[in-house]
Amino acid sequence: MKVVVEADGGSRGNPGPAGYGAVVRDAVTGEVLAERAEGIGVATNNVAEYQGLLAGLRAAAGLGADEVDVRMDSKLVVEQMSGRWKIKHAALQPIAEQAREVADRFARVRYEWIPRARNSHADRLANEAMDAQSGKARRAAAPAVVPAVVSAEVPATRWTGATGTPTRLLLVRHGQTELSVERRYSGHGEVPLTELGGRQAKAVGARVATLAGVDADTPVVSSPLGRARQTATAIAEATGGEVEVHQGLVETDFGEWERLSFAEAAARDPKPHARWLADPTVVPPGGESFAEVHDRVRRVRDQLVARFGGRTVIVVSHVTPIKSLLRMGLDVGPSLLYRLHLDLASLSIVEFYPDGYASVRLVNDTSHLT
């Protein structure tokens, strides 16, 4: 996915009370995918501009972008990040290094200077952040994906700077099926839980029901596939809640590799299979790429946060969608898909804050199965 990052920063006094703003847009449609804005205390214009760049790059990474066009009205930042000017100021060097580390996650990053008039969106966000910091405005600067107004001002995790009440997602993978026993690709096809899978679903349901914030009013949102709905039903029976289905939580469509083992798919399509393992944008024959899954799951996350902001939501899904949500929480690249293992009927927890921060609280817990 290709995106455009527009970023800006300002300081009222230089140095003085400072803040930044950043916007991530779809490179094709221009749609705003995310906003970031924050007051950063007393700093210079250049520090604030670099902080805006860093926030924009992190937001792009969280959205699963692989190509980024950065547009800023700061000639200094554009020339320094392009490698044409040296970074001599000691205060800018560590922020620039952080920005480079994030930029290295993308396949390509291009920096472009634009006139201030073309950077008005990011400039407005930076000024709103400075206003909010000084008490002139009460509007919380939040990403576009979180339309709810922040009603809580208490830092939940002071060491991260996160503020507000997070939307807490309890991520549950479905129980065992025959295809999971045989380690075969199981995407959009229907396959029921085994007897053991049914017991696993009840066990994870009993575990979830004991967690703080879970009661009969806690939403249980499931993939439409039967194995997930069976697991979600067991959880709802334990919590007293009701199950609703969200199509966006469906597993990856493996296309012609559905029900094949890893070895069978590799033997059938050796080159496409090897490329698929190395590149999340590669599409299996007749299927769906991991990048496409990440993009649709991001939209699901945005919808859940918008609808259930500040609440706990039980999400019952599959390996790839759950990994995608954890990837957003960790703000990391697609390599996580290949390095993180998720067991059947496992529980993971991620929280998304109104100010754009996120916190992964638990990953692949199966203590309820022992």
Into which percentage range does the β-strand content fall? 15-25%
Q: Which fold does the CATH topology of the largest domain refer to?
A: Rossmann fold
Structural class comes to alpha/beta
Give the mean pLDDT.
89
Q: What string, H for helix and E for strand, traces the elements in order?
A: EEEHEHHEHEEEHHEHEHHHEHHEE
Query: Number of helical segments?
Result: 12
Number of domains: 2
Give a short account of the largest sheet: 6 strands, mixed
- Apparent shape: globular
- Strand order, largest beta sheet: 10-9-11-8-12-13
- Percent helix, as a range, is 25-40%
The H-level CATH homologous superfamily of the largest domain, spelled out, is Phosphoglycerate mutase-like
| Unreliable residue runs | 137-159
Radius of gyration: 22 Å
Number of separate strands: 13
Overall CATH class of the largest domain? Alpha Beta
Oligomer: single chain
Question: From the 3D coordinates, which CATH architecture of the largest domain would you assign?
Answer: 3-Layer(aba) Sandwich
How far apart are the termini? 41 Å
